[in-house]
Automatic annotation (TrEMBL):
This is MaoC-like domain-containing protein. It comes from the Bacteria. Gene3D superfamilies: Hotdog Thioesterase. Belongs to the enoyl-CoA hydratase/isomerase family. InterPro entries: HotDog_dom_sf, MaoC-like_dom, UPF0336/Enoyl-CoA_hydratase. Residues 8-104 form the MaoC-like domain. It comes from Nocardioides cavernae.
Length: 129
């Protein structure tokens, strides 16, 4: 667990994942599932709930940090929509490790034909075991 270490997580976010997330968070906004409502607004696919990226970033950091680690801070800013069926890559780089706390710079990118940065800047702090 040294400065400069890079970590990542890739995931395709399918509509079924989005519905499960909506059920867990009670966020049933039509933007995330209603094709007819979306078409009226010029969107061809449901939009991934932005908070799902927080969950993916937390999963990436905690998987790297290992059992017993505690996520103590997470912040992020959205840059663009991500749509159902797109593949995202969460990436992070350790910028410091002091007194048992690692700080990471992170981002989320859409990979594939429509590649773009979806979330940046993002940052996480994790208390290591």
């Amino acid at each position: 667990m040294t400065t400069g270490t890079e970590i990542s997580l890739e995931r395709t976010v399918e509509l079924a994942d989005m519905v499960a997330y909506a059920g867990a968070t009670w966020d049933w906004h039509r933007l995330h599932y209603d094709s007819a409502w979306l078409a009226e607004r010029g969107l061809d696919r449901p939009v991934v709930d932005g908070q799902l990226f927080g969950a993916l970033l937390a999963e990436m950091v905690l998987d790297w940090a290992g059992p017993g680690a505690t996520l103590s801070a997470l912040s992020f800013r959205f840059n663009s929509f991500v749509f159902a069926g797109e593949r995202v890559r969460c990436a992070g780089r350790v910028t410091s490790v002091e007194d048992g706390v690692a700080t990471l710079e992170c981002r989320v990118e859409v990979v594939g034909d429509q590649a773009r940065v979806a979330v940046a800047p993002a940052a996480a702090q994790v208390r290591l075991r």
